Amino acid sequence: MKRNILLLAAALPLASQAQELPQPSPSGEIEQVIGLTGIEVDYSRPSARGRKVFGDLVPYGELWRTGANACTRVELGGPVIVGGKPVAKGSYCLFTIPGADQWTFILNADTGLWGTGGYTADKDVVRVTAKPLTTTDHVETFTIGFDAVRDDKAVLDLRWENTRVGIELAADATEQALANIKAAMAGSDLKAGNYGRSARYCVDKGVMLPEALTWAEKAVAMDRKYWHLHTLALAQAANGKYKEAVATANESMAMAQKESDPNYVKMNKARIEEWTGK
Hints:
The chain contains seven helices and ten strands. It is of the alpha+beta class.
């Protein structure tokens, strides 16, 4: 009898422990930097499992937690333009209202919700609409991702079953980038790459063009490589020095050909044709 009591006592701690089992809708996390702003999405990923999803498992016209289990949470590391509307830095729950022809995306300030229970529209910080697309590829497990990540923009992309829908996110990094450039230029021991990258950014943005030309010239003087010459040609053209730009681009293209870099050959050729009209 005493032995049985001891065995039971030894088993009690094990019985009280929570079971760790595979989840039918496991958690997922995705991060992306847009411009200079970090964005993180935490969500649970249900699978179709042979069921019809949208319009059935997930009804049209009703608020959806946009995943499973706890609400999908979006963390914005800075201010972001969501579907054309400004949203401040912070944590938000992502809700959606799916529809056959239109979806509504909602960011709500109440991040402690589980599902849609307790949701109140007065805590919405933004609502935007998007048109869903029907795809030929079947996506078994609900997936949130980032697509078309370029410059200061990206698309927050939702895919499940044969449906794909997304909204554009924009985080303008120009002000911070220019502050970073000015701080770097005030430093010492600068390399050709520092000058070249700063010049290219300003040329692409169409800002600080005289300074960009000076920096591009310094990059070439320190390291006469074809990519620095290409940036210099762009800076020269941006400052109205088209004759010099064509000559510099020709030199860059010749060096790129010698180094078997077809991308820079193509880019220089396109610019020369643009500047000469030929």
